[in-house]
Amino acid sequence: MKKTALIMAGGRGERFWPESRMDMPKQFLSLTGDGRTMIQLTVERIKSLVDIEDIYIATNESYMELVKRQLPGLPEENILCEPVGRNTAPCIGLGAEHIARKYGDALMLVLPSDHLIKYNAIFCQTLEDACAVAEQGGNLVTLGITPDNPDTGYGYIKFNPEQIVGRAYAVERFVEKPDLETAKGYLASHEYLWNSGMFIWKTSSILENLRAFLPDMYEGLERIRAAIGTPEQQAALEREFRGFKSVSIDYGVMEKAKDIYCLAGNFGWDDVGSWLAVGRIRKTNEFGNVVNGNVVTIDTKNSIIQGKDKLIAAVGLRDIVIVDTDDAILICEKDSAGDIKKVLENLRICNKYQYL
Amino acid sequence: MKKTALIMAGGRGERFWPESRMDMPKQFLSLTGDGRTMIQLTVERIKSLVDIEDIYIATNESYMELVKRQLPGLPEENILCEPVGRNTAPCIGLGAEHIARKYGDALMLVLPSDHLIKYNAIFCQTLEDACAVAEQGGNLVTLGITPDNPDTGYGYIKFNPEQIVGRAYAVERFVEKPDLETAKGYLASHEYLWNSGMFIWKTSSILENLRAFLPDMYEGLERIRAAIGTPEQQAALEREFRGFKSVSIDYGVMEKAKDIYCLAGNFGWDDVGSWLAVGRIRKTNEFGNVVNGNVVTIDTKNSIIQGKDKLIAAVGLRDIVIVDTDDAILICEKDSAGDIKKVLENLRICNKYQYL
User: Are A83 and A233 in contact (CB under 8 A)?
Assistant: First the structure.
């Protein structure tokens, strides 16, 4: 069956401020140090499975040019612009309608544009296995990540180790971000995976489920589909999207649907959720520092220092993130990386939009 | 007796890098936030005691223009340029010769250009009291600072509380920077003061002592004096200075001389020895931060943040010094402020002289 992909690239990626900005979010940045951006790596990663012509990018108007520039081989009509952000359910529905209209029923890989995967071959093999399961009946397949610590920052997937289809386990339920004690229990049970937000299904399967669980949205998506290729296309898209509720695919479909399966991924996944990820991804020196640019460090350890034009001198620091850009510099204690969003709130309150 | 002053302004002040540079050392910076530089404040502070025409500045060629610009009321001939730095003994000797040549025997206040004093009236009264003691015989008078903690970063002065002249105590001995245990003993004894490097004496007294303890240097200084106002002046200065040994006035004279007295100063002295001083001198906000410029702080305490043009966002920091300048930014843990000199060593090794 035809394999296609929908890569979701509408996020703002505030947690990589000041490198990421409203007009340059995380998926368009190169955070690995090899020069390629997150979205370029995402497309590159699946090239053995999906032709570039069969890859769709869901984003919004303001990132249209960035997508074109960073993915010059992609057909322009494969860039789907959401008029407004309405979370993942409408985004995925829009992609499914476009793909179904072009190819009829087809396999559809739904992938975030801003995750990193270390072992591409294992990843692609896992996707192949997932496709095999998704081709059967109306199965919805998701990739779970085998947890290596009781992280409270992810949703978890409870699977049933007794109920197997191909290489996938049946999913019993999705659970929201747990507290630490609960997460420790999940880890010990070996029956929970992290919810990675990567899905594999047929267009027919997901559209059928949208019809069942989000019927109003489904109706709107069908009207959008009917207008594709007509003079009405843009107006229909605008009108219907503005009418959609903001719903995630997890809440809107996955938590309610039947025939959900998951594959346990062990392919070196990293959701690159904050600057701390750079310390995991990039090569650290003998002091545990990741250093880039014109930097002098004295007695500084386990820190991430990303220089720009200015000389940065770091003295006596431990676990500090320093990111310099043309107009702003961040100095952040690693454990406080989650508070970067408060900087942005503060800037908004002070009308300093030029830094957002 | 005529009161004159010699203000020593040849230091490089590396500990305020990157704000201070080779071509802009600490004494020419405004660190108090009131706009006036350290050397301007030093001159201002003694204006009730010494006329501007009677103030001499010892510095070196590279800071000549800075002195002229920052002290426009000062006669140009009062700026004494040391051809090479040879520590304080030759510097003070040169000042004494110039002052003695112009005024004959005169009182001479020897003051650093880069200290801060909070209570000017008390300071000036202390200087008056010191002058009264210095006018008697060949007395050499120094100002000691009443210690409020067992600081190991200062030399100490042991005085004899039984032996008093005017408001001064006789000095028993000068001691080098002690270890912490010794310093604690000094503090508890109430018979030790910090050596502030401020001296009051007659030109005749100091020259007599230079003749006694540094006879070669004294001879050279006399030859310089003989050449003042002749076409030979600059050549003599160059020749003699290059021949001088590098000797501090403490080691060369004070530790050997008789008739040394000290006054205990309680005038809010601060030698502004590092960026930490800025936290003492400037107003801190309710989080203990000293913040200047375009700065956003989130959960940041007891830190010193000096911004420039860029936005600085500080998140989750404790006891961090951040100083931004046009071409370099320092991020330094407070306890490591002493290691800033290692940054400069590093820059020298890497031939990055533009940052020095």
Answer: no
Burial class (CB in 10 A: 0-12, 13-18, 19+), B54: buried
Which among A299, A335, A336 has the least Cβ separation from residue B336? A299
Q: Which residues in chain B are contacts of A299 at CB distance < 8 A?
A: 336, 339
CB B51 within 8 A of CB B59: no
Contact B331 A318 (CB under 8 A): no
pLDDT digits (tens, 9 = 90+) for A309-325: 999 999 999 999 999 99
Burial B231-240 (b: 16+ CB within 10 A, else e): eeeeebbeeb
Instruction: Name the residue facing B296 among A317, A318, A343 (closest C-beta).
Output: A343
Chain B, nearest residue to A294 by Cα: B328
**pLDDT one-digit tens code per residue, B180-224:** 999 999 999 999 999 999 999 999 999 999 999 999 999 999 999
Measured torsion, CA atoms of residues B124, B129, B135, B139, in degrees rounded to the nearest 10: -110
Probe site for chain B from A15, A304, A308, A315 (most B CB atoms < 10 A): A315
Question: The tokens of B242 are what?
Answer: 């290059």
Residues of A in contact with B336 (CB under 8 A): 298-299, 315-316
Please compute Rg for chain B using Cα positions.
21
B138 exposed, middle or buried (CB, 10 Å; 0-12, 13-18, 19+)?
Answer: middle
Q: Which of A313, A316, A320 sits opposite B335 (nearest CB)?
A: A316
From A348, which residue of chain B is nearest by alpha-carbon distance?
Answer: B296
pLDDT for the residue numbered A99: 97
Contact criterion met (CB below 8 Å) for B100 and B78: no
Gap from A307 CA to chain B (nearest CA, Å): 10
Per DSSP, what are the bridge partners of residue A320? A333
In sign, the C-alpha dihedral spanning A131, A136, A138, A144 is negative
Cβ-defined contacts of B344-348 (< 8 Å, 24+): B344/B14, B344/B17, B346/A296, B346/A298, B347/A296, B347/A311
Q: Partners of B269 in the beta sheet?
A: B117
Q: Residue A285 is which amino acid? A: N
Instruction: Determine the 3-state secondary structure of A298 from DSSP.
Output: strand
Edge-first strand listing for the sheet containing A311-315: A295-298, A311-315, B328-333, B320-324, B304-306, B290-292
B332·A315 Cβ contact <8 A: yes
Contact A289, A303 (CB under 8 A): yes
How far A352 CA lies from chain B's nearest CA (Å)? 10
Supply φ then ψ for residue A262, to 5 degrees.
-135, 150
Q: Single out the residue of A336, A307, A308 nearest to residue A320, CA to CA.
A: A336
Element (H, E) at A280: helix A276-281
B296 vs A contacts (CB less than 8 Å): 343, 346-347, 350
Closest to A107 measured CA to CA, from A206, A1, A249, A199? A1
Say yes or no for a CB contact (<8 Å) between A328 and B342: no
Contacts of A18 in chain B (CB under 8 A): 311, 313
pLDDT, tens digit, for every residue of B74-118?
999 999 999 999 999 999 999 999 999 999 999 999 999 999 999
A349 Cβ neighbours under 8 A, 6+ residues apart: none
Contact B315 A330 (CB under 8 A): yes
* pLDDT on residue A205: 98
> How high is the pLDDT of residue A104?
95
For an interface test with B, give the residue of A274, A291, A298 to mutate (most B CBs within 10 A).
A298
Mean pLDDT of B309-317: 97
Residue B185: other Cβ atoms inside 10 A: 12
